[in-house]
Specification:
This protein has a single domain, classed as Glutaredoxin. It has five helices and nine strands; from the N terminus they run αβββαβαβαβββαβ. The protein has a seven-stranded mixed β-sheet with strand order 2-1-5-4-3-7-8, with helices on one face. A hairpin with a 4-residue loop joins β1 and β2. The longest helix is centred in the first third of the chain and has 17 residues. The N and C termini lie far apart (42 Å).
Length: 200
């Protein structure tokens, strides 16, 4: 019994120390990341908005590709309501050449991205936020003190393979909740996608 309790304490300590990334209610981490037009983008660029839809995504991942049109639609629907999309590519282009900055420019032009698409060259922002997948969503809400806080983390919806069969539009529902001055429910879901390709 004693060894069982010690084991629980040990694993509890490991989990406590290994917990990484942002949680619901945390302040969003500031960043300065290069957009496909060469400009540097930070939270200050969204000071006039009510929040921000941060989506860690990329070019090559089949899951990310499957969601591209839905992400475009989300931006078109909610940017005017104060919740624009910011797409962040965290992948190592050495491991996946298709996720290089030049390829990002090509992909954005090909798909007609209406939102900013930036590169996390050092991968530090993905690590600070706790992103592990592409796509991985972090919905930010701006508070009265002009800070951005995490309001929702997880998936865009419940069906990556078929947009017409989606039953739960998690991200859209979360944004609508914020617009209605309510907390999203659920506040977290499991992000489904390709693993982020970390630098070796």
């Amino acid at each position: 019994m004693k060894s069982f309790i010690l084991a629980l304490l040990f694993f509890g300590a490991v989990n406590a120390f290994s917990a990484e990334g942002l949680k619901i209610g945390d302040d969003a981490k500031e960043f300065s990341l290069k957009n496909i037009d060469g400009s540097m983008i930070s939270l200050a660029n969204y000071s006039g908005d009510n929040g921000l839809v941060v989506i860690f995504t990329c070019n090559h991942c089949p899951f990310s590709k499957a969601y591209e049109d839905r992400i475009i639609d989300l931006h078109k629907k909610y940017a005017g309501k104060g919740y624009p999309v910011l797409a962040i590519n965290p992948n190592d282009p050495v491991s996946v050449p298709e996720d290089s900055f030049d390829k990002m420019i090509e992909r954005a032009k090909e798909k007609g991205f209406p939102f900013r698409y930036v590169i996390d060259e050092t991968q530090s922002i993905a690590k600070q936020y706790g992103a592990t997948r592409t796509p991985h969503v972090y919905l930010l809400k701006k508070h009265s003190d002009n800070t951005f806080k995490i309001a929702y983390i997880g998936a865009i919806d419940d069906n990556h393979s078929d947009a017409s069969s989606v039953k739960e539009t998690y991200l859209s529902n979360a944004i609508e909740s914020l617009i209605a001055q309510k907390s999203p429910a659920p506040e977290t879901t499991k992000a489904i996608g390709c693993s982020i390709k970390w630098k070796k």
